[in-house]
């Protein structure tokens, strides 16, 4: 079934010049980029996007990190793209994410409180709808 997902290239990915490489992997897999923008995240967008993590020890470092520079938001479309992009992204922790994945090939730990793991991808159709409305009008 055709789905849409919201992906974010986090500030570490943009700053390291990996935007093209990450989008290339999504396109090479066969997904269509239907929306694409670079933004400086507003505080209320991050509060909404990460509402489920509020109160966790990494919440404030995460919000600070996501505010530290521009990020790229995109909507990808394709059959089972939600699961498919998360598979491309790899596990949350970049040090141990499987080689072949975005995080496994391009990410690592940097000795900081937050995992700078390059990308975000929605985890369900409900999250995708909610997150697309946060980042796109
Ligand atoms: P993501 O899955 O996109 O959304 C939550 C983010 O919080 C996650 O990516 C990481 O960047 C960060 N994160 C999740 N778990 C931890 C953790 N245990 N320690 C530090 N950062 C984390």
Automatic annotation (TrEMBL):
A GO molecular function held by the record: nucleoside diphosphate kinase activity
Compartments where found: Cytoplasm
Major place of residence: cytoplasm
Residues of the Nucleoside diphosphate kinase-like domain: 2-137
Assigned keywords, A-Z: ATP-binding, Cytoplasm, Kinase, Magnesium, Metal-binding, Nucleotide metabolism, Nucleotide-binding, Phosphoprotein, Transferase
Highest taxon of source: Bacteria
Keyword flag Protease: no
Stored InterPro entries: NDK-like_dom (IPR034907), NDK-like_dom_sf (IPR036850), Nucleoside_diP_kinase (IPR001564), Nucleoside_diP_kinase_AS (IPR023005)
EC number(s) per entry: 2.7.4.6
Binding site for ATP: 10, 58, 86, 92, 103, 117
Major enzyme class: transferase
Cofactor(s), by name: Mg(2+)
Active site: 120
Keyword Ribonucleoprotein belongs to the record: no
Annotated signal peptide: none
Catalytic activity: a ribonucleoside 5'-diphosphate + ATP = a ribonucleoside 5'-triphosphate + ADP; a 2'-deoxyribonucleoside 5'-diphosphate + ATP = a 2'-deoxyribonucleoside 5'-triphosphate + ADP
NCBIfam families per the UniProt record, alphabetical: PRK00668.1
Function: Major role in the synthesis of nucleoside triphosphates other than ATP. The ATP gamma phosphate is transferred to the NDP beta phosphate via a ping-pong mechanism, using a phosphorylated active-site intermediate.
Family: Belongs to the NDK family.
Quaternary structure (record): Homotetramer.
Protein name, entry field: Nucleoside diphosphate kinase
Encoding gene per record: ndk
């Amino acid at each position: 079934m055709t789905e849409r997902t919201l992906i974010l290239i986090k500030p570490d990915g943009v700053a390291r010049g990996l935007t093209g490489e990450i989008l290339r992997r999504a396109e090479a897999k066969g997904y269509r980029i239907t929306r694409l923008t670079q933004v400086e995240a507003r505080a209320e967008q991050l509060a909404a996007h990460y509402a489920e993590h509020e109160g966790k020890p990494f919440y404030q470092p995460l919000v600070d990190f996501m505010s530290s520079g521009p990020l790229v938001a995109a909507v990808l479309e394709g059959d089972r793209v939600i699961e498919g992009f998360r598979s491309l992204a790899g596990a949350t922790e970049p040090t141990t994410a499987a080689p072949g994945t975005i995080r496994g090939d391009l990410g690592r730990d940097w000795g900081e409180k937050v995992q700078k793991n390059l990308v975000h991808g929605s985890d369900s159709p409900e999250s995708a709808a909610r997150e697309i409305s946060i980042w796109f009008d």
